Amino acid sequence: MDTTTSSKDTTPDPGAMRTVGKPPRFAEDVVLQVKRLSKRFDDALAVDTVNLEVKRGEIFALLGGSGSGKSTLLRMLAGFETPSEGRILLGGEDITQTPPHKRSINMMFQSYALFPHMNVAQNIAFGLKQDKLSKADIDERVTQMLKLVHMERFAKRKPHQLSGGQRQRVALARSLAKRPRLLLLDEPMGALDKKLRTEMQLEVVEIIEQVGVTCIMVTHDQEEAMTMADRVAIMADGWIEQVGSPVDIYESPASRMVAEFVGTVNLFEGEIVADAADHCTIETPALSRPIYIDHGITTQAVDRRVWAALRPEKIWLSREKPEGAYNWEAGKVDDIAYLGGYSLYYVRTASGQIIKASMANVERRGDRPTWEDSVYVYWEDHSAIVLNR
Amino acid sequence: MRFKPRVPSFTTLMLIVGLLFLYLPMAVLVVYSFNSSRLVTVWAGFSTQWYGALFEDRQILEAVWTSLKIAFFAASMAVCLGTVAAFVMTRFGRFRGKTALSSMVTAPLVMPEVITGLSLLLLFVQMAQLTGWPADRGMATIWIAHTTFCSAYVAVVVAARLREMDRSIEEAAMDLGSPPLKTFFSITLPVISPALVAGWLLAFTLSLDDLVIASFVSGPGANTLPMVVFSSVRLGVSPKINALATLIILIVAIATLLAWFIMRRSEKRRLMLNRQTLGGE
Amino acid sequence: MKSFEFAARLKRLKLGRRAVIALPLLWLTLFFLLPFALVLKISLAESVVAIPPFGPLIEYSDQVLHVFLNLGNYLFLMSDSLYAAAYWGSIKTAFISTVACLLLGYPMAYAMARAPLRWQLVLVLLVMLPSWTSFLIRVYAWMGILSNSGLINNLLLGLGVIESPLRMMNTRFAVVLGIVYAYLPFMVLPLYAHLTRLDNALLEAAADLGSRRFNTFIKVTLPLSMGGIIAGSMLVFIPAVGEFVIPELLGGPDTLMIGKVLWEEFFLNRDWPIASALAMVMLLLLLVPIVWFHRYQSRELEK
């Protein structure tokens, strides 16, 4: 999503608008700091001592299931919930106790929350009017915003006369109109159908990058987080499990929870039987041969019990028996899920363990293993990840 | 916004003031019904003598009985008529006379009673001239008058419930071979039955409470409770009426408490069911 | 054969449908709509001393069809300033009462809609409960409170705040107070229904965009609850214009209201044609508010 049109719609204010696309995506200064933030509802701890730093110009995603505390965290940033403990700093300034209408943070609501009695232009102008800008300034900014989201033609429409995608654009324009230092997106694609979702994901990112605003989004859809965000935080039970780039999260998950939440994974519980500087070996009752990994485990786990994680696309499937004493297993095809671009094979081993392996459908109707075929699965020495929690 | 105010907000204060405004005068009525003095405004000691006097007043007791009879039959008829009207308005799509019907359902809600009362009386008089019926105005004419304006209220209550109701269950019944009429009785009616009960109770209290319309269409034979009360209070306060008021307030309060209890229980049961089936979400 | 059977069934179905529509339509036409035509008819008749006390409109005698349209009743209404004063008094009183109801009822409904969910049902029942007791008796309660030897005057005299009793009974103040008291629930409930439907996210969005609470109220809450304001106001204003019981019990000679005048013309003077003409003019005055209310109500029903 390179922004070739980036400078076209920018404003005279160079501070708020970034005219260059990537790289570098953002300067290395921190816009938002969240320090030991907690929120307690009655007896339940919705958000539990969260620490977070978001850099200027970054798109940051909070990814988690329902009840993970991600929405509560977002609502505390917007000022709709008061934290039980901890502090929120925006540009170094403590805003923990600042009411929502005085924060330079704007939010795009999941339901969009467009005012039904105002037309598109009035909705966008609403925030600007609160700043007591002159009418000419407001008109100019509204026009600019309408242009930014390609809604000039619909300025006089009421929200109920718009399609889902159009409503979302208005909501985005409304939350960007005040040039906030931080933009919050609450389940930005939640109200759209699947096809429109993919389109709007790219369009929203393009608009955000064009404006250059720092952005935090909340979503339960991992694909959405991966597509849109520069960095992702995985939340569960009010905790942040891991923060990292989409690649980090997927390829180097910090825990079983993250590995299972993002994508599909095979997990083998086992024991480290050899750990040297350049390799380690894990034995697991689920497999008849050990798992060999081409690097040592540097973190000192007193407990030798670990989990080896293997992504299905890193497991090869073959009818020929592999060589060597480790990193392969024999089995029968138990089930096949044909997913278009690739197929997911469920292979049952002699011990009854199911191993998921994916196979790209490169050829049309090529010769592929089918139900009840005897097959072998094998993987590279660098494919498995060792997790100790 | 969940700003938790430490001092009660202006609106909360107004709510408290409003509720006090609604209940203080009724509390005064109740307190003075136990006053031993005939002067309602001077406290002269506790007494229940006015309750005794109330139960000896044959005129009032007869009026209560008349009113209850009329209210029962008017509410029952109004529920039938109002339900049909609501069903026609919400389920029949477009038909000739729909605008007329919906106008005639909403207009009685606001129509000044003196107009309704006068117009119905003129109708009954002309009917008697033309057909010989009703020769005497009385309970029957009051019943018709009350049924008419109560059915409008019932229609509004029931229509609201019908509109909320998931139409697919009716469609499912018809899809499974149930004819329209049978579907109405076996599916629609049971589902909207709480609204029917609410509509009946509303119609019952409206009929019991009506003074103006009944005064117009009543004849010499039938005196409803409001008519008797009115003729006694227009000349000034009377402790017997205070005792009557206390009893009415007591009955309504108990009925409301009962209704609240039932509603809360069914709400709780619904919540529990939800929790069981959805696993706590 | 089959298709014939089907056609017969369809025909039966259509007949049934028509019968179902006809039932409420006929009842309401006969007992609600037709009577208004009769009021119009009688308002054009002449008052006579007879039973019933009005003359015929159409007479056939000597092969001549006589149609009498007596406009005298309407002319009489215009000639006597008493009636104009009564109409004006009614509208003024109803208007003041409606505004007072709105000023008290709106904050109440707002607080109810913002109250914790488990409290809301209780609050609704608390507001409704008085209207389920007797209207007459609730108006009567104020007689004991407002009269010269009533509760308030006794209290103030006892405290030494005043030396002679304040005259509150039989004033416009008493009538307005009575109307506000009796009709307050009808104002609060539609407002409450609208305010609970208001999406909290809209208020949050306004705050998020920098709007203060008062500004949010004026710009978002108030316009979005306009439907409730109209419904509530009409539910108070229209019946209040024709109110009889309250001016009869709490009002006095200088609080003329048209409902009371109509009642007296009918029951005391037994002048049915004048009473009918009074009703027709009242209906004409209320036509616009009634149509407004109906429009709003049917829009509400279509939602």
Helix content of chain A: 10-25%
How confident overall, as mean pLDDT of chain B?
87
Head-to-tail CA distance between termini of chain B: 23 Å
Rg of chain A, rounded, reads 25 Å
- Series of H and E elements of chain A: EEEHEEEHHHEHEHEEHHEEEEEEEEEE
At a glance:
Chain A has 389 residues and is α+β, with helices and mostly antiparallel strands. Chain A is built from eight helices and 20 strands. Chain B contains eleven helices and no strands.
Q: What does this protein structure show overall?
A:
The complex is a heterotrimer of chains A (389), B (281) and C (303). Chain A has 389 residues and is an alpha+beta fold. In chain A, 22% of the residues lie in helices and 33% in strands. Chain A has a 6-stranded mixed beta sheet with strand order 6-7-8-3-9-10, with helices on both faces. Chain A has a 5-stranded antiparallel beta sheet with strand order 13-12-11-14-20, with no helix packed on it. The longest helix of chain B has 40 residues. Chain B has 11 helices and no strands. Chain B is mainly α and 281 residues long. Chain B is globular, with a radius of gyration of 24 Å. Chain C has 303 residues and is an all-alpha fold. Chain C has a two-stranded antiparallel ribbon. In chain C, strand 1 and strand 2 form a beta hairpin. The two termini of chain C are 44 Å apart. The mean pLDDT of chain C is 88. Chains in contact: A-B, A-C, B-C. Chains B and C meet through helix 1, helix 3, helix 4, helix 5 and helix 6 of B and helix 1, helix 3, helix 4, helix 5 and helix 7 of C.
Structural topology:
The complex is a heterotrimer of chains A (389), B (281) and C (303).
Chain A: E1 30-41, E2 44-55, E3 59-64, H1 70-78, E4 85-90, E5 93-94, E6 105-108, H2 120-130, H3 135-148, H4 164-176, E7 182-186, H5 194-211, E8 214-219, H6 222-228, E9 231-236, E10 239-244, H7 246-251, H8 256-261, E11 266-275, E12 280-283, E13 291-293, E14 305-310, E15 315-318, E16 328-338, E17 342-349, E18 354-360, E19 374-379, E20 385-387
Parallel strand pairs in A: 3-8, 3-9, 6-7, 7-8
Antiparallel strand pairs in A: 1-2, 1-4, 4-5, 9-10, 11-12, 11-14, 12-13, 14-20, 15-19, 16-17, 16-19, 17-18
Chain B: H1 10-32, H2 49-56, H3 58-91, H4 98-110, H5 113-131, H6 139-164, H7 167-175, H8 180-209, H9 212-217, H10 225-233, H11 239-278
Helix pairs in contact in B: 1-11, 2-11, 3-6, 3-8, 3-10, 4-6, 6-8, 7-8
Chain C: H1 2-43, E1 58-61, E2 64-67, H2 72-79, H3 81-114, H4 117-132, H5 135-146, H6 151-159, H7 172-197, H8 200-208, H9 213-224, H10 226-241, H11 245-250, H12 258-267, H13 272-302
Antiparallel strand pairs in C: 1-2
